[in-house]
Write a structure and sequence with these properties.
mainly alpha
């Protein structure tokens, strides 16, 4: 029974990996400018967002893998959460703390990107990403597309891959010793980092390096705050500012 359970878990991981995570590794550089404000791109990002939500639901329901959404804290201690929910000052403090972490994470992502852009400029090796700048009503479509994409990537790369693999190595394969748990954790985190970084290979080597640094920052804040939406909003803001800066430079 245990072996069948483990095989089923591996099959599910392989299926999700093949459906959603394999294609970006082999995606070629875009020859035409990217447009985030078209209806097809909007629906594609929406379907990805819904797929990410389904993946998180399956992880939680089937294998009790943490998905880092706030209700989990309340489930762990409903009495304390009820008291907190009745205290407006505490709720306001928690909101400000989460908002502060969103902007702190966003700032770190911007610093990483700025440093790499300076290096690229000094080496005269800067590769300009071309985008079609949205206008009017298309801004709403563009903003929704960027948010859906941020949620999708956070759900898969920051939660599903590392947490799912950790559950296999530590829980199912019985890595009981502290040393084995540490090694398993490092390997899972490193694999996810490389996977996310290489999925940006089509944008150039600097984007790969930037994605690696971004993954470290986003994963750190996710583990620290246990709140998926902090990293989702930080990721979304970074993508939005990047689009604005690229559009301004064209």
């Amino acid at each position: 029974m245990k072996i069948r359970y483990l095989i089923g878990k591996i099959v599910l991981f392989s299926a999700i990996f093949s459906l959603f995570l394999l294609f970006p590794l082999f995606q070629k550089s875009a020859r035409e400018p990217m447009d985030f404000s078209t209806i097809p791109v909007f629906f594609m990002s929406l379907s990805e967002c819904l797929s990410g939500a389904v993946v998180l639901f399956l992880c939680k329901r089937l294998y009790s893998i943490p998905i880092y959404i706030q209700y989990e804290k309340c489930a762990a201690s409903p009495i304390n959460c009820k008291k907190k929910s009745q205290n407006k000052k505490i709720r306001a403090f928690l909101f400000l703390k989460d908002a502060g972490d969103v902007f702190l994470c966003f700032g770190i992502l911007c610093v990483f990107s700025a440093v790499l852009q300076v290096i690229a400029f000094l080496q005269q090796n800067e590769k300009m990403t071309m985008v079609i700048f949205p206008t009017g009503f298309k801004w709403i479509i563009c903003i929704c597309t960027l948010f859906f994409s941020a949620f999708y990537e956070e759900a898969l790369y920051r939660i599903f891959v590392p947490e799912y693999l950790l559950s296999i190595f530590i829980s199912d394969l019985k890595s009981n010793s502290a040393e084995m748990k540490k090694i398993s954790c490092i390997l899972c985190e490193l694999f996810t980092l490389l996977l996310f970084a290489l999925s940006h290979r089509y944008l150039g080597i600097l984007s790969v390096i930037n994605a690696a640094f971004a993954h470290i920052a986003l994963r750190f804040f996710l583990k620290k705050d246990k709140n998926l939406f902090i990293t989702v909003f930080a990721h979304f803001l970074y993508n939005l500012i990047s689009l604005l800066l690229i559009g301004a430079r064209q």
